[in-house]
Fold this protein.
Amino acid sequence: MNNKKKELLVIIIVLILQTIIFVIAGIQKAYIHMDEAYSLGLASYDKTEIQANDDFYDNWHSKEYYEDYLTVNDDEVGKYSQVYENQKNDVHPPLYYLILRFAMGFNIGKYSKWPGIIINIIIYIFITLFMYLILQKLLKGKEKSKEKSIILAFISSITMASLTTAIYIRMYALATLNVLIITFLHIKLLESKKTDFKLLTLIGISVLVGVLTHYYYLFFLAMMYLIFAIKYIKQKQYKNLIFYTLTMIISGIISLIIWPYSIKHMFFGYRGQGVIDNLLNIKTFASNIISYLQKLDRFAFNNILLILIIIMMSIYIYKKIKKIEQKTEKNEISKIIFYPSLFYFIVVAVASPWIELRYIMPICGLAFILVIYYLYLLLNTIFKEKIVNKIVIIFLAVILVSPLIFKIEPEVMFSDKKEIVSKMGNELNVPTVFFFNSSHNRFLDDILLFATVDNSYIAKDIEYNEENIKNILENKDLSKGIIVFINGGQENDDIIEVVKKAMSFENVQYLKRLNACDVYYLN
């Protein structure tokens, strides 16, 4: 077997192993986040929120009523116009939702997590391939660079950040792929000795796809453009600068033709205004950076980033004290990975509305390989190659086993909610009432449970007295009790006492704190 075939075989094995790990993680995923519910609803429903229905509040509904928001029904097959319309009224570009809508069409009329997860698993095959290609460029000239590249590409794909991205039914896997593709194409552009119109065309297409996936992609792209613009100006390659800039402009114009609402979303929508306000708020800068570094540590490095940084700083200080001659190497490829990733991280950390892993998912893989790469370079200045390889292997092994030690799981696996989903859909399929405070509207965080029970009622901002409770539960079979949901901003104990007294229940069992509310069983 020649080297090419061996390389291909190893890549195939890695991709199969990666896919098996993702499928196992997908099987374990027990619940969905509010934004995942939005993904399914925006891709399939006739409006952005189910709460916008006139009959949503203060009426009894079957589980099919809620499941309808999460599924494509028979009469909706082949219809895609609502995806465009929903995204126009939401805050994101439409490409991911069109892909999700297509995948949901293979599972008609019933909620499933798998269309979204399978999309991400397929995308991750390409993420790992592009990570491998980038690593080959980064490690070019190093001993056994191909072997090191495939190992690092594989490990970067199974960190907790990657597993979270793979099972999170949102656009972030696609955004990650877009970031890696544009990075690889710019590495090729860096290596190009002359104007390559084919490569510029690919960059233009990549930019278009990236912008139509997520607006935060523009932060990464902006720094990448700045690096190359400065490079072309310094080297007086004005022809290359003009064609490169025209590529970006043309892609931007085409994206606006396809999706003109991006201007509204980015500059006039509530999310866009929030980003601008956050960027101007210096007070939150340091705290947000620290919080996001903690996220990066926990999920992209499985809790050992701080250890790696301390070791790298210790090596640097040791070299200074011992006056060991610096053996630096100029690697332009590492720079065009590092600076856009750093800029993206900083801007997103400050601009994002919440401290959430999902916002930095697109650069987690690049952050991972950069830290390992710089550790490798530093170790090489004081140790021989064989020793360096052994040390790096030890750290990679620690990264792989640390989730077991620190009990880390993918952020959106929700394994702690597996029991209540099963319990409510089977053992406790009883009338369910959500006493809903509309000022804390995160209903979609828990829509999945309402899609499992036969009878449920959303009581919006009611006065909690015995008469109202009796009116709601009139003519309902309460022989097995009821389930009560209570969201934020309310006195849970007072509400439970009124319900208990009104319906002559004797027992109260606190079941679970969910994403946005508390759940009780009364009988």
